[in-house]
Design a protein that fits this description.
477 residues, binds flavin-adenine dinucleotide, alpha/beta, 7-stranded mixed β-sheet
Length: 477
């Protein structure tokens, strides 16, 4: 087997964790080799996750806005969906962004190796380029960033035709007449929104009593209120079993708490989550430990049980979010480059569900505060009090802030409503900076804007806000 020269830093996997680590390490003067089977960096996020799904959600949101515009005095013809063009546009966005990352990789003199890597020892990797070429290389330090894979359901085989996963669902060839989505988490709701908006009769089966398990119920309630007619059927506390393809349809047994029913759908999308995928790395050959869920065990510097090897992103633990992976990647690169203060210690990681409306949260949630019996003051600012919400048809929205009851320090926050995802970073930054209710309420926010709801929610900590009499009373405007 051919052997390459020893590398100073090898990064395995070029998703948002791996490429961010590579870019930071190169900036800090390290010689970096980045390994991934794809033509360009990007990972699941750019090729099969965040970017293609949000490109489609942008289109369906536009369609919704067109429908809503009628009551604002703007009449459009019923939009005609051209799937081929939609796909072309989505693919163009993906190609532009991944191509850009390839360009940035070259500009930073990072060696990009196409292939799949696995350990042969504590110091050596074997790379298979997928075209019959296999070679080995030694390394001083390595960062593992190979992400996660789709979680399957026992007894349900994804055939990628009738029974599909999120990757298949993002390669829209047709809009099926009907679809069952197994899983009411964020991927199920986002893809359900896309397909339902394009005319598919979408049903959802969720094992727990509601959508988005773990998310504060008031936020989920706002999604439900605005999407009463979006889905054909919703089955909570229901398991999908005995899934079988018959005459081009998928037969499913839906086992609820009290009843069992058989239904047929044109497609079934399995969206029950993702899990780490450490096996192909042959970690045993390097003595790297994983936990009972398959995550690689890391310390707060993202170092594994083998100190010259680091792990980041989906492979190293929840939450499965691109920006968490990126942050960890930068931390690991800085630790390797010898930056003494580099540590992974976030107070707040924002999460966004890009449905219509968007739901977003960061830091401590209200449910967590309740579970842990924490002394907090939760304030909720209804968007009925916001001028911007009124003029943009988003009065159902809500901004919620969670403060330490005694000190008024902001611990968590959430927003549900149009552009919630663009508002949540302000709350997240305030948490990271240890801002208090007073500081937030004294920061002048632009009018008319939805960010005013954050400032006024902070005023509510003291009992009243400019446009709300008390936190329980309705808007005065
Ligand atoms: P990944 O992005 O998974 O990248 C891992 C890379 O490693 C891949 O390119 C893979 O080919 C490569 N690889 C695997 N094995 C090897 C090997 N042996 N050798 C070399 N290379 C290897 N997150 C958000 O923050 N926002 C969103 O809106 C969002 N939407 C999503 C929508 C969907 C449908 C999905 C599936 C995910 C979404 N996510 C979203 C999650 C996000 O994609 C992941 O959290 C993120 O991509 C994790 O980054 P990562 O660097 O850990 O790994």
């Amino acid at each position: 087997m051919a052997k390459q020269d020893k590398k100073q830093l090898v990064i395995i996997g070029a998703g948002p964790g791996g490429y961010a680590a590579a870019f930071r390490a190169a900036e800090l003067g390290l010689k970096v080799s980045l390994i991934d089977p794809e033509e360009n960096p990007g990972g699941v996020c750019l090729y099969r996750g965040c970017i293609p799904s949000k490109a489609f959600l942008h289109i369906t949101r536009t369609k919704q806005e067109i429908a809503a515009a009628e009551k604002w005095g703007l009449n459009f013809k019923e939009p005609r969906v051209d799937l081929k063009k939609m796909n072309e546009w989505k693919n163009k966005v993906v190609a532009k962004l991944t191509g850009g990352l390839g360009h940035l990789t070259g500009k930073r003199n990072i060696e990009y190796i196409r292939g799949r890597a696995s350990f042969s020892s504590e110091k050596e990797l074997v790379i298979d380029n997928g075209e019959g070429e296999v070679f080995s290389l030694e390394f001083e330090n390595a960062i593992l960033a190979t992400g996660s894979k789709v979680m399957d359901l026992p007894g349900i085989e994804i055939d990628h035709q009738h029974i599909i996963d999120s990757t298949d669902a993002l390669d829209l060839k047709e809009v099926p007449e009907s679809m069952l989505i197994i899983g009411g988490g964020y991927i199920g709701l986002e893809l359900g929104t896309v397909y339902a908006s394009l005319g598919c009769k979408v049903s959802i089966a969720e094992m727990t009593p509601g959508f988005l398990p773990g998310t504060d119920r008031d936020l989920v309630g706002i999604f439900e209120k605005e999407n009463k007619d979006l889905f054909e059927e919703v089955y909570f506390e229901t398991k999908a079993e005995d899934v079988a393809v018959e005459n081009d349809l998928v037969k499913v047994v839906l086992k609820g708490r009290d009843q069992e029913q058989q239904k047929k759908f044109h497609k079934v999308l399995v969206a029950v989550g993702r899990k780490p995928d450490p096996d192909p790395l042959h970690l045993d050959k390097a003595g790297i430990e994983t936990d009972e869920k398959g995550f690689i065990k890391v310390n707060d510097r993202r170092q594994t049980s083998l100190t010259s090897v680091y792990a980041i992103g989906d492979l190293a633990g929840q939450p499965f979010l691109a920006h968490k992976a990126t942050h960890e990647g930068r931390v690991a690169a800085e630790v390797i480059a010898g930056e003494a203060g580099a540590v992974y210690d976030p107070r707040s990681i924002p999460g966004i569900v890009f449905t219509h409306p968007e739901l977003a949260w960061c830091g401590l949630t209200e449910s967590q505060a309740k579970e842990q019996d924490m002394p907090v003051k939760v304030v909720k600012y209804p968007w009925t009090a916001s001028g911007k919400a009124a003029m943009t048809g988003s009065e159902n929205g809500l901004t919620k802030l969670i403060f330490d009851e005694k000190t008024g320090v902001l611990l968590g926050g959430a927003v549900a409503g149009k552009n919630a995802g663009s508002l949540i970073p302000e709350i997240s930054l305030a948490i990271e900076l240890g801002a208090t209710a007073q500081e937030i309420s004294l920061s002048i926010h632009p009018h008319p804007g939805l960010s005013e709801t954050i400032m006024e929610a902070a005023e509510l900590f003291f009992g009243a806000a400019t446009h709300v009499v008390t936190e329980t009373k309705e808007s005065t405007t």
